[in-house]
């Protein structure tokens, strides 16, 4: 089981400025609803492929502001990733609007080199398919009715809030303190259905429309 300890992989914390980043994260993936990975269980079909999308509402890396920037990952793995059974093959996309200092900061934070929660999550990253700076369109409803991200022509992800006959109007289907939360402990996961989950990039190619999606906020700091 992955244990959460504050470490800074591959670099000295003294060389890394204080940073904070908070905002919205969501995924769309191959698993059935609800994705078992969020409950620290094995994927529905033994393996998982998915898109992870991040939007920074407020953030800084030292003096470098990160507000409004996006990141998007595509990847896959086999087995229960939280039980140490798997390493994820990953491809990393970052917002092309970022300037040179912002690009460095995004890579440091989201690949785990700047510590914080992503420093722990990066322990399950395996093969690296590469990093690109691209246009990333990110949209989210204030009431969490939907969330979406797109790299035109390459990646399309959209989830719509899960509902059903026993869901009160305007209410969301949520899980508190999910044991496999992808953004850290103590979070609220809002469940949805993937109405778009299509990738043709970084050597990945799939279309898993109709499967699981969820939104979880993130609030990180480091190193």
Explain this structure to me?
This is DUF1326 domain-containing protein. The chain is mainly beta and 223 residues long. The longest helix is centred in the middle third of the chain and has 11 residues. It has one domain: Acetoacetate decarboxylase-like (Beta Barrel), CATH 2.40.400. Helix content is 8%, strand content 47%. The two termini are 23 Å apart. Strands 1, 2, 3, 4, 5, 6, 7, 8, 9, 10, 11, 12 and 13 form a 13-stranded mixed beta sheet that branches.
Helix content: under 10%
Q: Count the strands?
A: 13
H/E series: EEEEEHHEEEEEEEE
Q: Kindly provide the radius of gyration, computed on alpha-carbon positions and rounded to a whole number of angstroms.
A: 16 Å
Please identify the top-level CATH class.
Answer: Mainly Beta
Question: Which structural class best describes the helix and strand composition?
Answer: mainly beta
Q: Point out poorly predicted stretches.
A: 1-12
CATH third-tier fold name: Acetoacetate decarboxylase-like
- How would you characterize the largest beta sheet? 13 strands, mixed
> Per CATH, which architecture?
Beta Barrel
The domain tally reads 1
Look at the structure and give the mean pLDDT: 93
How large is the share of residues in beta strands?
Answer: over 45%
Count up the helices: 2
- Sum up the overall morphology in one term: globular
Q: What is the straight-line distance between the termini?
A: 23 Å
